[in-house]
Please model this.
Amino acid sequence: MKSMRKIVGLIFVSLISLSSVFAQGKPDARKEWLNGRYARAIEICEDELKANPRSLDSYVVLCWALVDNKQYAEGEQRATAARRIFPDDVRLIEILGEAKYFLDKNTEALELFQLYVARTRESSASRLGRVYFLTGEIYIRQAKYEHADIALSMAVRLEPATGKWWARLGYAREMAKDYRNAIAAYDKALDLNPSFSDAASGKTRCQSHL
Model:
């Protein structure tokens, strides 16, 4: 009897060990995406969606990876399809907005970014700063520089260590002829990166107007 219990115990331990091995060996699409291996993340997500066509997380990571891999048209297509199943998921709203932004569909992108902002809180939205930055870029494209100033000011408030965003804020203010505040933004960009040539030349241009 003791020997039977021992055998059963060994089998149980072996099964646990095997399940642990299989769990460790399962591909992690999100990890691949975070590490910049976008093609691999896309491949894993496609396999997951074949097994479960209603896997929300698989759709989200797939679309993130497609956009980061510069497959914007496909990212737009897949995010649109995913939103038919999950219309209220803010991650899909945001990434669809990004895909449209990179495809120069500015009005559609702006509507999605505004929807994302309306449905998220600063404490829980890890991509909110990026959304404000891209919103500011759209307004720069549209020559709405005061609107761009507002959006980019929000972006740098949320992520103050991003030098490129400060430089773009400086540019928006420069285009609005708000030269003193443009210089302040360019200075912040140069504090973060003293060799940032765009910020240095922008500051010089603004100083020539004072």
The chain has twelve helices and no strands. The mean pLDDT is 90. Residues 2-25 form the longest helix (24 residues). The two ends are 95 Å apart (CA to CA).
